[in-house]
Amino acid sequence: MSDPLPSPVFASPSRALPRGACDTHAHVFGPYDTFPLADPRPYTPAPAPRDHHLAMLDQVGFDRGVLVHGSAHGWDHRAMLDAIAHAPDRLRGIGTVPGDTPLDELKKLHAGGVRGLRFTDVAGPTASQQFDGRVGFDALHRLAPLMRQLGWHAVIWANAATLAEQASSLRAWGLPLVIDHMGYFDVAAGVAAPGFQTIRQLVEDGSAWVKLTVFRNSKEPGTHEDVQPFHEALLRANPERLLWGSDWPYLGMTTYRPTPAALLDLLDRWTGSDDLLHRILVTNPASLYGF
């Protein structure tokens, strides 16, 4: 077995987080001699093992966390399930499975702390390629009845335009929906663009939750001020359907890498309310993930 990686050091936000705060979006990868990557795979991440994720939660001030299965591990959920098993009262998981997965296999994931499945239909350099560990809306159509039996939700990672095209189908599946990364909208198109307005409406009527991952949409590294109008629109739409995720360990971020503390400070400034901050970081995730 290889030597353990040095433990990372994370800054704390300017203000301590409320008790029960939850980071609803992070990933673990490796260690690769125990949990190897899939081959082929859409990307090759640096190791981000369980202990580093827990160190991030501890140092930043999160009592709870949600891990999203990384497609670089293919269909192998062991790295995520191992992390949850190490802190079962503290962590939950979001899996990714083939569309023909039987209920018995989903029940095993449920016993391991999984509370939903992720479906991807986002534009990108590997969007047209098929990899283990990544499925689209066709799989959701097949899995939705089983997910309803388990009380699970569907996590949607798609462009805003795609969400607008699929809005009727998404509602028809009868599942709680969680939209990743604020819906991955085109910031240049503005708040009034049909894609973002569909996301806002899904949040407003309670059909969907949305993760406030501002930096994935921003063209202004560091300040992310170009995303603030979209953030404010979602706050006005329905604060009971808002979540926050760090997206640690920041896959694909090379020229600019955010930190959880800086992103939390931004959330604090943009909400401007202790009650709102508590709802986004504590109340909402506790309700959705069953903490």
Structure description:
The structure is a single chain. With 291 residues, the chain is an alpha/beta fold. The protein has a single domain, classed as TIM Barrel (Alpha-Beta Barrel), CATH 3.20.20.140. The protein is built from nine helices and eight strands. Helix 3 links the parallel strand 3 and strand 4. The model has no long low-confidence stretch (mean pLDDT 94).
Outline the secondary-structure elements.
Elements: E1 22-26, H1 50-60, E2 64-68, H2 78-86, E3 91-95, H3 103-111, E4 114-121, H4 137-150, E5 153-158, H5 160-172, E6 177-179, H6 194-204, E7 208-211, H7 228-237, E8 242-243, H8 260-271, H9 274-289
Parallel strand pairs: 1-2, 2-3, 3-4, 4-5, 5-6, 6-7, 7-8
Helix pairs in contact: 5-6, 6-7
Summarize the structure.
It contains nine helices and eight strands. The chain is an alpha/beta fold. Helix 5 links the parallel strand 5 and strand 6 (177-179).
CATH-level-4 superfamily name? Metal-dependent hydrolases
CATH class: Alpha Beta
Strand content: 5-15%
Task: Please give the order of strands in the largest beta sheet.
Answer: 1-2-3-4-5-6-7-8
The CATH architecture designation is Alpha-Beta Barrel
CATH fold field value: TIM Barrel
Q: Judging from the principal axes of the Cα atoms, what is the shape?
A: globular
End-to-end separation in angstroms reads: 34 Å
Number of helices: 9
Order of helices and strands: EHEHEHEHEHEHEHEHH
Q: Indicate the radius of gyration in whole angstroms.
A: 18 Å
Largest sheet: 8 strands, parallel
Oligomeric category: single chain
Mean pLDDT over all positions: 94
